[in-house]
Amino acid sequence: MRLKTVLNRVHKVKGFVYEKARFHDDQIEITVRPHRRSRPICSGCGQRGPGYDTLPVRRFEFVPLWAIAVFLIYARRRVNCPRCGVTAELLPWAEGKHHLTHAYAVFLARWARRLSWREVARIFHTSWESVFRAVAGVVEYGLAHRDLSGITAIGVDEVQFQKGHRYLTVVYQIDSSCRRLLWIGQDRTTKTLLRFFRMMGKERTAALQFVCSDMWQPYLKVIAKKAGHALHILDRFHIVAKLNKAIDEVRAVEAKELATQGYEPVLKHSRWCFLKRVANLTDKQSARLSELLQYGLKTVRAYLLKESFQTLWEYKSYHWAGVFLDAWLKRAMRSRLTPIKRVARSIRAHQDLILNWFAARKEFSSGIVEGLNYRIKLTIRKAYGFRTLPAAEIALYHALGRLPEPKLTHEFC
Ligand SMILES: [Zn+2]
To answer: Are residues 16 and 75 in contact, defined by beta-carbon separation less than 8 angstroms?
Structure first.
């Protein structure tokens, strides 16, 4: 069996013929020529037109065979198009400027979802840039061809990008039928989120029934303005995260106070005792926690307030959850713990949005947004190569966007 036969089976290209294959410099080269009677397609308007001349031969990298690099060798024609003038012909197997064939780009992009881009480049003897371009091409296709109909629930979240205070705003679809990353924007301002709603358009925005977000003021403002008809739910995961941050602050200040007053460093290495859920503590940590609870420390009071707040989520009725929340807020405001009071004030200001979670019959567990948030952080961390925002965006869409891929006649991986 000849290589030509195999190629015609896995990668038949209409209007073109595979000619001879040869082994050259440890690579397989396959010459491609146009079918005798076929006329080139203009890359400007997509119509066939008369040939003009032929450009120099170029190499297009194809999926490797037995770990040997494979190249399609082709001299591109130019079209004398009556509408566009002289243009280069449209190639069915590759983007004009790129040296990667579509098949190889999809192949690399699939591997890039399983491994880091650097590893993919190393395994397939190609450059990081080639992997980047492959993923970028597949993502571009996916964004242009994805289906945005039927979205009823979204979650808005902020993610820290790089060191310092650079943020990305991310929007997820959190319908039970489809959970995916919908959109990424630089910063976390009102303008950022307004751009998302512009992308969604009026009709799709009107179809939204639930919006989850954290307590970030610019988000609240835009959601009220653009999706006021939907039930806006403050995300449980973010509220607990805020309380944890407050405990951390109380603990840090108190530890310092105790040290300057010459007390034993009881709070040393205690951070995780207070931040983890009781059920997740190791035996050693849990023994340490019971010891710490015996001291009348501010940190302990803050911790107990947070733990009792968790009871809120166990309520079944909207009404009783509200009664509980009122009582909790009173206790928190009387706690004389500044960081806790700060969180309590912001909870009180958005009480309705928090209780909306009960109105939505707990349909949106904090696990959804938390899980997606975790995977975003993982993708950003795994991708050491992403010094630039566009590369990070492409990686995130690729990993979490559930984008459709270009159709190929053969599944190469
Ligand atoms: Zn044309």
So the answer is: no
